[in-house]
Amino acid sequence: MTSITIDGVARSFGSLRAVDGVSIAIRNAEFFTLLGPSGCGKTTLLRMVAGFCELDRGRILFGDERVDILPPHQRNTGMVFQNYAVFPHLRVGDNVAYGLRARKVPEKVIGERVSRALKLIQLESFETRWPHQLSGGQLQRVAIARAVAFEPHVLLLDEPLSNLDAKLRIEMRAEIRRLQKTLGITVIYVTHDQEEALSMSDRIAVMRSGRVEQMGEPQAIYEQPATPFVATFVGATNLFAGTVSRRDGEMIEVAIDGGILRVRSSVGQPGRHVEISLRPEALSLVSAGDQPQAGWGLLTGALHAVEYLGASTRLHLRLAGDRELHLTVAASPNVTGDLRVAYDPAKAVVWAKDA
Amino acid sequence: MKRFFRLYAFLLTIATLAVAFLVLFFLVPVLKVFGVSLFDAAGKTMTLANYTHVLSNRFFLNALGNSLTIAAAAFALTIVIGVPFAFCIARIPIGGKSVLLALAALPLVLPSFVSAYALVLMFGRAGIVTGAMRNIGIPFESIYGMKGIITTYTLTLYPYVVLPTVAAFRSIDVSIEEAAQNLGSSRLRMLRTITLPIVMPSILAGGLLVFIEAMENFGVPFVLAEDKPILAVETFKLFVGETAANPSSAGVLGMLLVFCTIVVLLIQRNVLARRYYATGARRSPPLFAVSLPLRILGSTYCWTVISAALVPFVAVIVISFMRFSGPVLHYEFSLDNFAQLLQRSHRPLVNTLFLSTSAAFAATLIGVPIGYLLVRRRSRMSVLLEIVATSPFAVAGTVLGIGLVLTYNSGPVILTGTSLIMIIAYAVRKLPFSARASSALLQQIDASLEEASINLGVPPFATFLRITVPLILGGIVGGAVLSFVTIASELSSTVVLYSGPWITMTVSMFQALEGTSAGEATAAATILILFTVLPVALVYRLLRRFELSLLS
What pLDDT does B548 receive? Predict the structure, then answer.
């Protein structure tokens, strides 16, 4: 139950800057997610907090206490490893009790705490089972119970769901979130799965090449991505590059290959190079003869692929200038040939490109 | 389906032949020894008198006690020496690891009784070191007896513990250890509560092999035991009979020997085998950052162990190039020992090369298809094949030799005294090794490679020849070479089975040892070492891939 301050930490492996000057302030009882592609430094950062990776510079504090100088076993963090790391030679109960025994908690108390931890993850009757008798999902729960049984300052989760099947993964998301709320514990959660990050977190830091690209609440990350990278990594989007040809109050007109986009933006003066993101849900199909909603822009493209996704359908269009555009529509539409697509100029995100 | 059947039929035929081979030349002989132990001297009436006679005889009980004590001591000492050694190699940053590991494995292919003989040369009654110590006034009697035997076993068998333990230390998943530290364990507590328990099954498995090997070995106690009774030696003596041969009592002792090794083997297979903790590490855990003094200490320790184990062999080689007059050693260079040895006869060397080559070839030819069937085609026959691929471990070479002599010295097929019976005995003893070596190799090769080939239209039998065999060929050759060198230094069944024209290097060394021609014995030992180290060095790159399968 503590806040965590990560203050300008950096670590290089040879010429690779794995973590390159990251500062994050995590609040008490916050569910904080490090999100990014593999190799972005998120796991290294987590291992720095746990003490398995040394810092080249910077500090890490739990509350007011500096911890980056402590060895891992004195940091009082509970960590859940990607491959669970449940001790194969100890029974479930002894696995969960391991951290308590290391802290010399009296055996009588250990018994209670172990049952409480196992109850928390709904494995009450598993105390005397061996790890090899358990399924992947159960091992995952044991790993979590073991990490929280000794009431650590913070809970660190390193892609804990990546080895589970899709359905179980969604169940476990909710369960981990519920557990975190029940215990009121500070969590750092590492994942490359944007859906996981959006659904579970209080706040997210999107990382890329050892740096934090954007930090904020899930909604802000999704709706106001700070960079084109964040827009493409978190959710699907259509990116366009072009030059501002005209500004008209809040609106700008941007010349892209084979057309003009008219979007709302505060950035970008005429002549400036910009990038524009249009999320699939900011787009809608306009049937022949209908008019688009007032104020919406219009694009025309040739349909060249249809992906049926069950609840929705994704359409792939090719615009003039050979540009790809994809949009998601609710039902399975019976369409072919050239299609007209309307876009909401207010939902576009525009970044000025460095000159 | 028809094509599929061809490969399977081929393998099955070989496997069936292998089973028949083992029934004829392993099962029947061992049962014959058992049978002999159940009949009176005339071979007419069935009786348990032989057992009561042996088990009430103080001398034979002593032999049993001595053998068990020696095996237990070797078990304990190899673990005490081997585990820290393995830990240093696997987990501490010290220099020359691959050299250390290669040298550590070397005693496995060197004839252990050469090491025993070297100890006699140095620490025997007239030994070089003994004499030197007496000269400077340190009382030292000699190395003979239990202490010498145990020392020799410890120094020659510790690799059985080191190799699997190094592998186990290296295959621990790093996150298991990190989890222990994350949960509040210091490195020392982690070693004690997590690392060591996880590698313990591998340590014990290696230790039990030491136990079996120490029970069944014949050459080392023959050189060092003097008047101490040792089970394997007494079995042989009773059978050959210096005054009158006594096959019934020899049979009883042989059965005792087999019983002890079977018990140990069953413990290993049924208790330990279930306790392997596959942690599925994708890469080896990192080395421990330890202080410089600790690194120096670890390095020193490893090199001390290596030297202690290899110095006897080096000593024998050096001494073989010195001049002897009778048993007296002169400190001057000479090739006389070799000249005398080879002048007498080339036969032993030629015999050893011929017998070892033939037997290694036979063991490989039979063993590889069995290994393939064990890994790739699990069937009802697998259990039978598992037994085939294990049971020869449980029977001491002396006992197998006696059984073969008893079975094939009369009746329709007489093999006693031929080279064939020796080749058969060697092939039986090496079959488990070659089968296991090839199944271990196959386990490392994903079955999808073969499936891909079949999927691309190459029938199974052609796939076996074009994909499977080339992939494991290096390993097969390496395994055959290892079989060759271990057969070349085999003594326990050789000493029972050889006849005048088929005398081998080991036997001639042996006779030289019993006589007074110490010089010739060292020359023979040097040649033997040459013929075991040289082939191994030549194929060392092939061997590295399956150092472990050497063991079981």
Answer: 46
- List the domain range (segments joined by +) for residue B428: 1-35+334-552
What is the rounded distance in angstroms from the CA atom of residue B484 to the CA atom of residue B499?
21
Query: Given pLDDT bands bounded at 50, 70 and 90, which one contains residue A212?
Result: very high
- Averaged pLDDT, A107-125: 92
Q: What are phi and psi of B122, to 5 degrees?
A: -90, -45
Q: Which CATH architecture has domain A4-226?
A: 3-Layer(aba) Sandwich (3.40)
The nearest CA of chain B is from the CA of A129 a distance in Å of 15
Count Cα atoms within 13 angstroms, Cβ side, for A57. 5
| Local confidence band at B551 (pLDDT 50, 70, 90 cut-offs) | very low
**B279/A77 Cβ within 8 A:** no
If asked whether residues B207 and B67 sit together in one domain, one would say: yes
CATH placement of domain A238-352: 2.40.50.100
Residue type, A327: L
Are B105 and B26 in a shared domain?
A: no
What pLDDT does residue B516 have? Answer: 63
CB A100 within 8 A of CB A113: yes
Asked if A103's CB is within 8 angstroms of B184's CB, the reply is: yes
Pairwise CA distance, residues B436 & B385, whole Å: 11
**Is residue B146 domain-resident?**
yes
Total beta-carbon pairs less than 8 A apart between chain A and chain B = 73
3-class secondary-structure state, position A34: strand
**Mean pLDDT of the B208-226 span:** 88
Q: How far apart are the first and last CA of chain B?
A: 35
Interface check A160 vs B, CB under 8 A = no
Label each residue of B344-370 as H, E or C: HCCHHHHHHHHHHHHHHHHHHHHHHHH
Cβ pair A71:B183 closer than 8 A: no
CATH number of the domain that B95 lies in?
1.10.3720.10
ipTM of this predicted complex? Answer: 0.78
> Does residue B245 sit in the same domain as residue B106?
yes
The reply to whether residue B278 touches residue A88, judged by beta carbons under 8 angstroms, is: yes
β-sheet bridge partners, residue A315: A306, A327
Residue ranges of domains in chain A = 4-226, 238-352
Q: How far apart are alpha carbons A161 and A80 in whole angstroms? A: 10
Answer whether residue A47 shows pLDDT above 50: yes
